[in-house]
């Protein structure tokens, strides 16, 4: 990146099913992130969080990046990118190692994490994250930062996230085709959790749910660490589709009607309010009550929330999330959703937007940007680029070298 000091710029690229957003943040002296540029472009090449059309995705990424570069007055060379999709799996694992020299060193921590990652995973899946939950030194549990502590035996509990090799490769391919390096691939809901959750919520136990266009992503935190992640391939696009089918109206109108008039709770619409619905072909528009619209929307949201509730129950953490549920993502803005969700989950629910950053609040302070803002916060915490390591892990070393070569040749 030119113009500004390279080291102080962070870039997040949220590759969503509905939109691609590129956010540029500047790291201030007090470690705060100020958003200085944002570019968004409708996403055309993804289905349910997965790239299905490389060419369209590349074009959308390029547009979003160019817009962000223009606004921030910088050149973007590398990004932290989000990844989602129902190919994502997660599991908790455990590793043990001997402490070499009485005091725990970084090498001991690396070894114990390596031991924890030694789990059989399907051949078409690759590890995306190994997230330490806690360390145990000689039966002393709950250690967050083991380096420097004394003991004989070091154990680690970790949360492992894996994803389909091809899905990760395609995301990287699209970004590389834009002449950009990937510093890291970050699970979308992990990223959103950085932006919308407070530390106290993570300590107390909380379930964050990002309802986007193509996927709904869930993550559970207790005692300050991530415990469970899941992806459900139902989200806002399904609601739009239901409206299009039930009201016999083209999808683009269904989307407009949804955003302007829909409600996830029928009982909130019982005042006889009417809306106008454009018809297909040259038939004349019809009038319809808002209540009838809500009757289409409510069952789909209810189904989704029930699936999420079952997932939370299955994970075994339902009784441990005392902080309740935090909904984010574009489709979480539906009127009446919080009340419906409280009814399904039987616990407190709130709508969460990106917090903890400054600058461009009027644009960024929107639940659709939770993943993008979270990517910047993740990047701040993990300053070392994992790009080359990731490329090797995903069998993309050649591509990496090519992308770099192309890039160096052009600038
Ligand atoms: N005010 C609103 N009320 C209801 N739904 C909304 C509203 N605004 C946007 N949406 C819906 O939010 C969805 C887009 O959300 P978002 O931008 O978070 O998705 P995405 O990140 O692109 O997709 P995904 O995360 O699933 O890959 C669309 O389905 C859109 O219809
Ligand atoms: Mg999203």
Automatic annotation (TrEMBL):
Pfam families: FtsA, SHS2_FTSA. Residues 10-196 form the SHS2 domain. InterPro entries: ATPase_NBD, Cell_div_FtsA, FtsA/MreB, SHS2_FtsA. CDD domains: ASKHA_NBD_FtsA. SUPFAM superfamilies: Actin-like ATPase domain. Signal peptide: none annotated. The keyword Transmembrane does not apply. GO terms for cellular component: cell division site; cytoplasmic side of plasma membrane. Cell division protein that is involved in the assembly of the Z ring. May serve as a membrane anchor for the Z ring. This is Cell division protein FtsA. It comes from Thiobaca trueperi.
């Amino acid at each position: 990146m030119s113009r500004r000091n390279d080291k102080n710029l962070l870039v997040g690229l949220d590759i969503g099913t509905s939109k691609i957003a590129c956010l540029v943040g500047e790291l201030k002296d007090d470690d705060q992130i100020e958003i200085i540029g944002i570019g968004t472009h409708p996403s055309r090449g993804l289905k349910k969080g997965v790239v299905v059309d490389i060419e369209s995705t590349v074009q959308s990424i390029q547009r979003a990046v160019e817009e962000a570069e223009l606004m921030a007055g910088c050149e973007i060379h590398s990004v932290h990118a989000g990844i989602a999709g129902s190919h994502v799996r997660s599991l908790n694992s455990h590793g043990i190692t001997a402490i070499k020299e009485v005091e725990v060193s970084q090498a001991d921590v690396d070894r114990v994490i390596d031991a924890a990652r030694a789990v059989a995973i399907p051949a078409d899946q690759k590890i995306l994250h190994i997230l330490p939950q806690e360390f145990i030194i000689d039966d002393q549990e709950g250690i967050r930062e083991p380096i420097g502590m004394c003991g004989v035996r070091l154990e680690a509990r970790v949360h492992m996230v894996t994803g389909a090799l091809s899905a990760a490769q395609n995301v990287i391919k699209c970004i590389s085709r834009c002449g950009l390096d990937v510093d890291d691939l970050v699970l979308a809901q992990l990223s959103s959790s950085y932006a919308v959750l407070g530390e106290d919520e993570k300590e107390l136990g909380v379930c964050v749910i990002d309802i986007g266009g193509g996927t709904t992503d869930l993550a559970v935190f207790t005692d300050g660490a991530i415990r469970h992640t899941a992806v459900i391939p139902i989200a806002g696009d399904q609601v739009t589709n239901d409206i299009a089918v039930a009201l016999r109206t083209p999808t683009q109108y269904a989307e407009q009607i949804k955003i302007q008039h829909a409600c996830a709770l029928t009982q909130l619409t019982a005042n006889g309010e009417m809306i106008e619905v454009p018809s297909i072909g040259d038939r004349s528009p019809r009038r319809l009550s808002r209540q009838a619209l809500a009757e289409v929307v409510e069952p789909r949201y209810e189904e989704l929330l029930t699936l999420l509730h079952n997932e939370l129950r299955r994970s075994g953490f339902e009784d441990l999330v005392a902080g309740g549920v935090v909904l984010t993502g574009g489709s979480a803005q539906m009127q009446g959703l919080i009340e419906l969700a409280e009814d399904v989950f039987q616990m407190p629910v709130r709508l969460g937007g990106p917090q903890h950053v400054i600058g461009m609040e009027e644009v960024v302070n929107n639940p659709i940007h939770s993943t993008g803002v979270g990517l910047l916060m993740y990047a701040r915490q993990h300053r070392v680029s994992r790009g080359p390591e990731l490329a090797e892990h995903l069998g993309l070393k050649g591509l990496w070298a090519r992308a770099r070569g192309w890039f160096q040749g052009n600038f």
